[in-house]
Design a protein that fits this description.
The structure is a homodimer.
Chain A: H1 2-19, H2 24-28, H3 38-56, H4 72-91, E1 101-102, E2 105-106, H5 107-131
Antiparallel strand pairs in A: 1-2
Helix pairs in contact in A: 1-4, 1-5, 3-4, 3-5
Amino acid sequence: MIMFFEYNWQVREEWFKWSEECSPEELARTREGGLGSILRTLVHVVDIEQAWINGLQGIPEFHYNFEDYLTLDKVRDLSRSCRLEVEPFVRNWSEELKDRKFDIFTFGEVMHHVIAHEIHHIGQLSVWSREMGRKPVSANLIFRGLAHS
Amino acid sequence: MIMFFEYNWQVREEWFKWSEECSPEELARTREGGLGSILRTLVHVVDIEQAWINGLQGIPEFHYNFEDYLTLDKVRDLSRSCRLEVEPFVRNWSEELKDRKFDIFTFGEVMHHVIAHEIHHIGQLSVWSREMGRKPVSANLIFRGLAHS
């Protein structure tokens, strides 16, 4: 499980880096699909990851407001602070937890859902990137030194 | 591992169904990002999955040509025939295999790569869908009855 989270966190940091080359207007521009803009999509993947993983840790569901994260720096800071909340749980994941119930779901299902959720939204960023005439961040999971994570 | 493959196969079949409501011209239309069209992107996810998973089974690398799969029916047939090749291996996956070497990669890394690869490209289809004014296939992994797969 951790290999996918490591992948998502690496790729997310690379999109933050990629975003540094964008104007604030381009990052906020309304686009078709995803959460409607690059910044909102990045906030969304951070928010959904923290909401579910904190949920598995017994913390009541809470969501961040897009309107509070209107700059790249704020989104990156949010991502890093949320990662501090979720990373220990993810690193301590054990297959013995997978059938434990969380509401109508299993812990395993939730972990898989969170992983797929971010990869899916990152795929959307890649189309917008090409539409802007820019090369997107690589989506490859190989060549990232993750073999033994 | 199987939960993600089940997810990708379900979602892929739903995109085939979604594609039935598209004209052949829309399916083949050149678009920004991905493999440049809906049909080519669908062929690509099928092809990459079979190439890697067959590779892990000792079969030399082989790729299908986009030009041979220019209709939805042909792509769906290709998907189903390739699935017959890969599904037994995926269902028999065991964590003991994950550190086995495949060229410069590990088996585990390849399995993760194949999963992330398809989810990423499906995210691209969802943007094109919105640009066409259509609701995309749901990317949710929850609510698919996969909890115990």
